[in-house]
Every structure is written in C-alpha cells, then in structure tokens.
Write a structure and sequence with these properties.
Shape: globular
Order of helices and strands: HEEHHHHH
Strand content: 5-15%
Structural class: mainly alpha
C-alpha cells in the first residue's frame, strides 16, 4: 500500500491537448528506459515546456503529501489503515476548481500554469483546515 502512495505522488500526470486528444507526459519519472516508453509527443518537448511540466509535477507532489498528512492527522493513532476523507476531498476539489483548467484554450503552458495556480489555492485550503 505504501508503494501505491509513492507511485501516486511521483507520477503527477501532465495532460496537454492536441486537438481533442490528451497525451500524458510524466517527465518527473526517473530512468531513461521509463522516459523512452512515454508517447512520441513527450519525447521532444522543448526546455521551457519540460521545466513547466516538472514544476507542475512538484506542485502535485506537494499537494498530495499535504493532503495525505492532513487526512492522517484526522484519524486516531490506533487506526492502521489509510484514511481518505472523501467529504473533505470533494469540498477541496470543488473550491479549488481544478476542473476549469480543462477548458483553457491555448497552449500547454497556460494549461499547466492553471493547474499549478489552482493547486496552490488548494494547498491554502488545506492549511486553513489544519
């Protein structure tokens, strides 16, 4: 189960629109073999796009860690299972309006910047809840 948490934290997904298709580029994964298995569109991103994708991955990782820590702090220490507060998560995602990034028309840079900004808002909401 711990491995699943690590995989989710490390694999912040990046989707950018190519017409109506979405391509995921998990450029924060380590290892040339793993990177070489990503779609062709992910193999040749420019340095600015790659830097923004890595920034978005870092924002996802921070958000995910903070959310898991918050949820862990809300359960008795004798509880050995993973606790997911779905009510809190639903409120968090609704208030963060992360879904609005899907309607961003323009470049992948605008889309990724939207994700980073919305996730920052969600981090602030977690801080307020603690």
């Amino acid at each position: 189960m711990k491995l699943l948490g690590v995989l989710v934290a490390v694999c912040g997904a990046f989707a950018f629109s190519l017409g109506s298709d979405f391509v995921e580029c998990d450029l924060d994964l380590e290892g040339a073999k793993i990177i070489s298995q990503l779609p062709d569109q992910c193999q040749h991103v420019d340095d600015a796009t790659k830097a923004l994708m890595l920034e978005e991955a870092a924002s996802f990782k921070l958000f995910h860690e903070k959310l898991l820590n918050y949820e862990a702090s809300q359960v008795p220490s004798t509880d050995e299972g993973i606790h997911m507060d779905m009510d809190f998560r639903n409120e968090l995602y609704a208030a963060g309006e992360l879904h609005t990034c899907l309607s961003v028309n323009g470049t992948v840079h605008l889309y990724l910047r939207c994700l980073i900004d919305k996730r920052s808002k969600m981090l602030d909401l977690i801080d307020l809840a603690t």
